[in-house]
Design goal:
Largest sheet: 5 strands, mixed
CATH superfamily: STAS domain
Helix content: 40-55%
CATH architecture: 2-Layer Sandwich
Shape: globular
Number of domains: 1
Radius of gyration: 14 Å
Structural class: alpha/beta
Length: 122
């Protein structure tokens, strides 16, 4: 199954719903292009659902890390939610869990963005 990336705007955040395989090749290139396009459009608050990602390889993990770094350089944040145990285990094995803000649900992740806005305004 190839990777599909559906986006929606919610509370000033771009939500990406990934479905399929985040693996080397056109799948990772499509993911990288989407992130670059969002950043070019000054959309730097990004939330990614990985619940329907059935396979990820080292290139896919690298693409996620790269997205976090690029977004941070643009003053934004990427957060993940609905992360399957397999992906959590891979991130943990490679000591990358701390590189990501991970939430169980979309609502929790969206609420965390609202909390950041309130803290910045204080």
């Amino acid at each position: 199954m190839q990777l599909t990336l559906n986006t929606k705007a919610k509370q000033g955040v771009v939500v990406i719903e990934a479905n399929g395989r985040l693996v080397s090749g056109e799948e990772c290139e499509a993911f990288r292009k989407l992130i670059r396009d969002l950043l070019t459009a000054e959309q730097n608050r990004i939330l990614i659902s990985l619940g329907d990602v059935i396979r990820v390889d080292s290139t896919g993990i690298g693409a996620l890390v790269e997205a976090v770094i690029l977004t941070a350089k643009e003053g934004g944040r990427i957060k993940l939610f609905n992360v399957p145990r397999l992906i959590r285990n891979i991130l943990s094995t490679h000591r990358l869990l701390q590189a990501f803000d991970i939430f169980e649900t979309e609502d929790e992740a969206l609420a965390s963005y609202a909390t950041e806005v309130k803290k910045a305004a204080s």
